[in-house]
Write a structure and sequence with these properties.
Elements (H helix, E strand, L loop, with lengths): L12 E5 L5 E5 L7 E3 L6 H12 L14 H8 L3 H4 L4 H18 L9 H10 L4 H20 L27 H10 L5 H12 L3 H4 L7 E2 L2 E5 L8 E5 L2 H9 L18 H14 L7 H14 L4 H8 L5 H19 L23
Antiparallel strand pairs: 1-2, 2-3, 4-5, 5-6
Helix pairs in contact: 1-4, 5-6, 8-10, 8-12, 12-14, 13-14
């Protein structure tokens, strides 16, 4: 298994340390000219400069962006409470990754001239992946909602743009009890991989939250933590069940997080997702994910009689729609089992033998 690994450096990007101890970044393709990058490493502006240097397109103006440009609006937005306080770190990272591609194409364009047609075009370019299209719209809605409040624009170009339709289907495949048994056979108590599954299975946490869950969240056998997803702060209560307690006692766990990689260090949610996928494949489970474990946890709770309110408290759902799916399925199964006997008809419980015909004497 591969633990948390540093991301490879993008092609043709080089780093030097000046005599003053300051890191300097530049792009050089082969033996060509060196192009110095001035923006802060890792920032969206840095990515814009990097892409411009690769393609040989016009370099963004050094210094502050034009106060009428989309890049300027984006920079101001990232300094506000709407960005820093209302969005989770994971949401901010996701939106920065989306926006750096937008800025490459449109960073110098006046933000006041952006219309709903531009937003729709951006949505349609991502239409083959509806989740990406929705994330793009969420980003633009947040940006222009703040711009409206700050009176930078008079019209919100996202106001009339609809979300793309969701793909029909069950989504992530739920784990089955047979999957859990197969995984347990391959990864017994005392392995990293066993800790990974049991923390997922008995906490009900999403992948982004489960990698942060650790001893510091637990007091007297009860875990409490704030969830990563969503703009509102939401705390869930996570009793440590005996089966999970036994797994954690067997370890191995980290000092601050129960889930760690082979080097004993915490994992980013992306690294954990990859490592967990490898563990599943080693156990003969090829088409299931960490999110599917959350599904079987919710299904088990619903089948054991958990109400919509109880599922919301356990899994951090804010609306009734998602837990209602699980309780509805559980209720249908329970009702079918309890009422199956009503299909029986006492008059059909036995089939009479055909009457024997007697031949007339010849």
């Amino acid at each position: 298994m591969i633990g948390a690994m540093p991301r490879p450096r993008p092609p043709h990007l080089h780093r030097e340390i000046t005599r003053h101890g300051k890191p300097v970044w530049y792009v050089r393709i082969g033996k060509g000219a060196r192009v110095r990058l001035r923006a802060e490493f890792g920032s969206p502006e840095f990515d814009v400069e990097y892409q411009a240097a690769l393609t040989g397109s016009a370099r963004p103006q050094e210094g502050k962006p034009d106060s009428k440009s989309l890049a300027w609006l984006w920079k101001r937005y990232r300094e506000t409470g709407a960005w820093l306080n209302e969005l989770s770190p994971a949401t901010r990272r996701q939106r920065e990754n989306i926006m750096k591609h937008v800025l490459i194409q449109s960073g110098t364009k006046p933000y006041a001239l952006i219309t709903s047609r531009h937003i729709i075009d951006g949505r349609e370019r991502r239409s083959t992946t509806p989740a990406q299209a929705r994330n793009f719209l969420d980003l633009m809605r947040g940006l222009f909602a703040w711009a409206m409040e700050a009176q930078h624009v008079k019209v919100d170009p996202t106001a009339t743009v609809k979300n793309p339709p969701r793909k029909k289907g069950p989504g992530f495949k739920a784990w089955t009890e047979a999957d859990v048994e197969a995984y347990y056979r391959r990864w017994p108590l005392g392995t990293h991989e066993r800790v990974w599954l049991d923390v997922l299975l008995y906490s009900g946490l999403r992948r982004g939250d489960v990698v942060r869950y650790g001893k510091q969240h637990v007091r007297n056998g009860i875990g409490k933590m704030r969830l990563e997803k969503g703009d509102e702060e939401l705390e869930v209560t996570l009793p440590i069940l005996p089966v999970l307690g036994a797994t954690l006692a067997a370890g191995p766990c980290g000092d601050l997080t129960f889930i760690v990689g082979k080097q004993g260090k915490p994992l980013a949610k992306e690294s954990f997702g990859n490592a967990f996928k490898e563990a599943c494949m080693a156990a003969g489970i090829f088409d299931k994910s960490a999110h599917g474990v959350r599904k079987i946890a919710a299904t088990t709770a619903a089948n054991n009689g958990a109400t919509v309110s109880q599922l919301k408290a356990l899994f951090g759902w804010e609306s009734d729609s998602m837990p209602a799916l699980y309780t509805k399925a559980a209720d249908r199964e329970r009702l079918a089992r309890d009422s199956a006997h009503k299909l029986e008809n006492a008059e059909r419980t036995s089939i009479p033998a055909p009457k024997r015909q007697v031949r007339a004497p010849e």
